[in-house]
Amino acid sequence: MASRPERFIGIDVHKDTLEARVDDREERWEFSNDAAGIEELVTTFGPLSPTLIVVEASGGYERVVVAEGYAAGLPMVVVNPTRVRRLAEALGIIAKTDAIDAQVIARFAAIVRPAVREPQSAEQQRLNALVTRRRQLIAIRTAEKSRLSTCPELMRTDIEEHVAWLDGKIEDLEGEINDMLANNPSWRKLTALVSSVPGIGEVTAATLVAELPELGTINRQKIAALAGLAPYNRDSGPRKKGRRIFGGRAQVRCVLYMAALSATRCNPVIRRFYERLIERGKEKKVALTACMRKLLVIVNAMVRKQEHWEYVPA
Question: Do 31 and 85 have their domain in common?
Fold first, then answer.
């Protein structure tokens, strides 16, 4: 009996529409990006038994269709749009329309075959949203506070009132985040474990739990790459350039930067590592980036082994 042909589907996501194409075929669909359209998409693709359905990350507009598709048993994968665009350039595809983009995404699915991963649970998405919103409000508060030094006097009261309101909202969000972490047994245990590392505080621990759920499930190279802390070579022939980090989850890097900065003072392992790098002539930023990576690798190993921090002097 002949096996069914492989079918790779690419979906180009927009705020209002979902454009879908199949690699190397004329099949094409357009659905509305709402409950009715997503239900129609799931109903249409289910009987086709697709090998893979790849969706570009589109600022959150893809979340519902991916979650619903996965729940219906469809092999849904979200990919970085930059990777897809690079493939289009390599194939000489310059034009850009919804249909062409969906076709390129389908071609990407057939060539790269990214691994299917289970989407975040509703609880994980809520925690992530709370942590993200807290970060956004802190950025707004910082901007407002900086305006106080140059604003006209008649605007000072208004800005101060806004800052006070932001203080209250940030405090409320922190309370919600702490409640979620405390009420979930696995998160409570994970937060306590991560926070046991000198240099890592509540904000860093909460961010790692929310935005790096892969902690402890993958090796040191992959966890560093996810956080954008893996150094990559940039050599060409006789020309040798210094290795640089690239990509990854920016917000994880931000909290790890502050954690590593603190750890170089209060964590004996990180402090000694940092001092050795400086003695070898490394620039301070390069040394601190290496400390960020080492700190993440340590945390990843601790979570995998379910062991709290324990420092034994040499």
Answer: yes
